[in-house]
């Protein structure tokens, strides 16, 4: 569905999504990196468990929420991918240990 233009060149970084190693271009957002890797399901809704993925790609809709390095409710479309980043599907609402806020 999404793919890079053939003339795109750049440095690559490695990251994982749900434990699967992936590669992305340095400077990509997490959402762009996941879409380029063929991932379209980023989270499930808290009430019905319906699958959700990026919609607006500019931080307005909150459909692209993921867990990054153990921290939930991160907007994938506004977060730049980094080497070694651990990205995970967010299932429902993010939870935090007592005493820690988002």
Task: Summarize the structure in words.
- With 102 residues, the chain is mainly beta.
- The protein has a single domain, classed as Ubiquitin-like (UB roll) (Roll).
- The chain has one helix and seven strands, in the order ββαβββββ.
- The protein has one helix at 30-36; strands at 12-17, 20-25, 43-44, 51-52, 65-68, 71-75, 86-91.
- A hairpin with a 2-residue loop joins strand 5 (65-68) and strand 6.
- The longest helix is centred in the N-terminal third of the chain and has 7 residues, at 30-36.
- The radius of gyration is 14 Å and the shape is globular.
- The model has no long low-confidence stretch (mean pLDDT 90).
The CATH architecture comes to: Roll
What is the CATH third-level topology name?
A: Ubiquitin-like (UB roll)
CATH superfamily, by name, is 2Fe-2S iron-sulphur cluster binding domain, sarcosine oxidase, alpha subunit, N-terminal domain
Number of distinct helices: 1
Overall shape: it is globular
Number of strands: 7
Distance between the termini: 33 Å
């Amino acid at each position: 569905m999404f793919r890079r233009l053939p003339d795109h060149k750049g440095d690559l970084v490695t990251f994982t999504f749900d434990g699967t190693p992936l590669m992305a271009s340095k400077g990509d957002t997490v959402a762009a990196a996941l879409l380029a890797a063929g991932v379209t399901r980023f989270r499930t809704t808290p009430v019905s468990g319906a699958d959700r993925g990026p919609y607006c790609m500019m931080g307005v809709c909150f459909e692209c929420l993921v867990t990054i390095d153990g921290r939930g409710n991160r907007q994938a479309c506004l977060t730049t991918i980094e080497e070694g980043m651990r990205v995970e599907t967010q299932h429902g609402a993010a939870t935090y240990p007592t005493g820690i806020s988002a």
